[in-house]
Amino acid sequence: MPSSTPEVPGTYVFDVAQSNRGYALNRLCGSLKDAANRERFSADEAAYCEAYGLSPEQREAILQRDWTRMLDLGGSIFYVFKLAVLDKKSMQDLGGIFTGMTTEEFVKALNAGGRSFG
């Protein structure tokens, strides 16, 4: 059966399949909204990952802060960003990472009206 999810080159489409795939990863990242969980995570990241039942690939992506891989493994930017904030990263920092730009280049592109796709 063909997928009903549109393919949009250069973007991550977060659909039901990705949501299911990334459930544990997104649950972990979402838990970081609470200060006590942020402290527990910071004290022992590997143990915290273990408690959430991440796949080995998800665990590695979290521990290595491989932001793009997190999205590949079903992470929702809305949840992954909670981890980025813990690392004092801005949405512009992540935007740069996801587009292969520096943060400064990404901000400059945004201020100029965004990226050109054609």
Automatic annotation (TrEMBL):
Q: Which domain of life is it from?
A: Bacteria
Output the InterPro entries linked to this UniProt entry. LigA_sf, Xdiol_dOase_LigA
Question: What is the name listed in the Swiss-Prot or TrEMBL entry for this protein?
Answer: Protocatechuate 4,5-dioxygenase subunit alpha
The family database entries (Pfam families) matched by this protein are listed as: LigA (PF07746)
Q: What are the residue boundaries of the Extradiol ring-cleavage dioxygenase LigAB LigA subunit domain, all occurrences included?
A: 25-110
